[in-house]
């Protein structure tokens, strides 16, 4: 499960082209929903002082356990409890230019009755599984540029790990990008296959998008510019051959900063349309999303709005839905949907032996009442608590407790339900 934090525009090497991380969530200190920011982060290299290939080798074990129970009013319930995690290997830099990396993931069933399948913690069945999700080589061809080939993670808008269960999405492909914490950054590449979060097999990208039997991949190119005083502008274009294209752009920045008070504005736009042979049908749609965020001391308030074109919902078969209103259960990007969000976060700081923080969201989604794209209006209420021990043997232990209640309009065939989750993450170095 991804440490549900905003990843700053989708990952120019958002996904850490040169260093790759298995759980950005556990390394992040901002409690937030995943993919709301969909930011493109620069390609990362772990500093410019690199050790030898063997001396700098790391082997990190990242255990995780995840319990999910979705209690529905009418439809069948889903429930499961999994244990597993990741074993991550990274070599040092050979001749300051080449690095190898691999990650083994596993999700094993502690509890998962057949009549409550569908949690996405396991393969359908439900069955536990293990997979070599990452296996790649990185070549650094200049001081701040590199290329990575093989199985890897990405964190781009609509193309990313979406690490919100036991095992993330991973991909087979090639990507090139640069290191740029500020100023100009870029990333481009080609992705041939995806291994989805509840599977151990890689399939072609077009097949994952719904074009059964096809073998098409995704081309992508993105760039972003971050100014010294904070404003960021970025964009990325993705093409799944003969299936559909996605264009995503974003602008964010501080509007007012005074001592403990901060006001920040966000706006992002998605355009999607079928292309080529239109293997999953003809469509043309868009999503506009905006957000204002006010922080004062330990509390942050936010309000957001999004609107989706009424002709078609947003397609996201490769993970990382990108909307400021994407929350625990729903992404609020159905055809013709107008949605509003109000939320707050609070940092309680030290409580007992650990740090406690919490955030809550309420999202309303209004959709067409009639026509081919009619769907139930719904409201989602979310509450999340995060507790990090940061002391002794449990210094890297992170406990997340989440609850969501989804209230759907019954007249449109809606189904109310309660979603409850407990996630424990931990990691320690074996080498």
Automatic annotation (TrEMBL):
It comes from the Bacteria. The keyword Hydrolase does not apply. Residues 1-25 form the signal peptide. GO terms for molecular function: porin activity. Keywords: Signal, Transport. InterPro entries: OM_porin_bac, Porin_dom_sf. GO terms for cellular component: membrane. Belongs to the outer membrane porin (Opr) (TC 1.B.25) family. PANTHER family: CHITOPORIN. This is Outer membrane porin, OprD family.
